[in-house]
Amino acid sequence: MHWEKFQDIQELNNYLEKKIAENQRYSSDSIMGFPGSFLDRKIFPEAIDSNSVYWRLLRENPNHIGCHTYMTGESAFAGTQEIERELLRICAEEILGAEKDEFDGYVSTGGTESNIQALWLYRNKYIIDKYVQNPDTVNANELQHIFLDHVKEVDVIYSEDTHYSMYKAAHVLNLHQMKIPVDYDTRQFDLTYLSAYIDRAKRGGKKFFILVLNMGSTMFGSVDEIDPVTELLDSKQIEYTVHVDAAFGGFIYPFTNPNNMLSFKNKKINSFTLDAHKMLQSPYSTGIFLVRKKVNDTCLIKYVTTGKASYIEGNDSTLCGSRSGANAVSIWMILKMYGPDGGTEFCNELIRRTNILCMALDDLGIKYYRNQHMNIIAISATDEIKKLAKKHNLVPDTHDTSPNWYKVVVMDHVSEEYIDKFIQDIAITKSQ
């Protein structure tokens, strides 16, 4: 082994400083298309206090392996596990309307893991409930064969605007998937296409369906209307469950839309994905998976509880296994410092800035899509927008072909001055 060794910590830091300088910074560069920002400045000031409890937690490195709303966890980290449970309670009950103590969940590595976790749980539930009489006694190899024989009966349905992690999740879990087209202007499910597809799927042997809805799709910030879709599925007399991917919208849409229909109050919805490293400006690897504790008196999280993890206190019900307790604490810190009123004020300020940008685009005759309760704008890829995409770090809907849309996300660092400069650049480019 022959890798190069630095002589001291100063040499290592000097090297890192040079590499960091090659990155763009939210605080100084025009970055308008990314669904992220610097860490929240109230909680993580630029001048690092080495005595802060959060930085101490990073050093002490608590491991939150397991699902602590369901079973006990490693008793060595009971204190921060309690904080994680309180964080999950705020998200499930206060933000998403769950009944008291009627949820399970954990802080994941991000939205992708949470989406895989959801599909993993529902796949297991459908097959075990239908084809395994006693899952606690069945041989592991026999159980694997049952899954191989019947996984083809489970189908995942989502719109074409859904995050690519659904494709990844279905691929990993060997599930059939169908991407449903959406209306170009409204970004809602094409119900005629969906209806015809369900009929074909039933004839082809599909028996169980997992419907994924968006609360803030990645490119458009669109929010799927639940009632038209579930009314259609009900008319088909099929067995289905609903998972909501709220990775982006979960920490803004419930604050800005009092009439939010995508919550645990809707009995058809059984689980949610959220990402704190987007709107909450927490460190990356701070996703959240939430699921109803019971449906028809049956516990849901048990379908992904791994009894083989006998050396772990409380076993494990998560996809990732070992995970950082400090990450859970970072989200809790932000929510507790802002409170519901502060969170609503923060979100509404971003909506105000988004409105300013939309009105300016209207004045310039630039076509765009935007949900009025979201801070994402998908701007039509006109010649002038294409010319400005690199300068302002706009994100295209595709890097492989000529894009149709470029995304702007009005995050905390996207000030009115940023917006004014962007609008001025569009006007100048249009006039040339």
What oligomeric state do the depicted chains represent?
A: single chain
SSE order: HHHEHHEHEHEHEHEEEEHEEHEEH
Regions with little confidence, pLDDT below 50 for 5+ residues:
none
* Strand count: 13
- Counting helices, strands and paired strands, the structural category is alpha/beta
Shape descriptor reads: globular
CATH superfamily of the domain at 59-334: Type I PLP-dependent aspartate aminotransferase-like (Major domain)
Largest beta-sheet details? 7 strands, mixed
Question: How would you portray this structure in words?
Answer:
The protein is of the alpha/beta class and 432 residues long. The chain has a domain at 59-334: Aspartate Aminotransferase, domain 2 (3-Layer(aba) Sandwich). Helices cover 39% and strands 15% of the residues. Strand 12 and strand 13 (405-409) form a beta hairpin. Helix 4 (111-131) packs parallel to helix 6 and helix 10 packs parallel to helix 12 (416-431). The protein is globular, with a radius of gyration of 23 Å. The protein starts with 8 loop residues before the first helix and ends with a helix. The model has no long low-confidence stretch (mean pLDDT 94).
Write a short abstract of this structure.
This protein has helices at residues 9-20, 53-60, 78-95, 111-131, 140-150, 165-172, 191-203, 226-235, 253-256, 325-364, 383-388, 416-431, and strands spanning 103-108, 154-159, 176-180, 208-214, 239-246, 269-275, 287-292, 294-295, 298-299, 368-369, 376-380, 395-396, 405-409. It is of the alpha/beta class and 432 residues long.
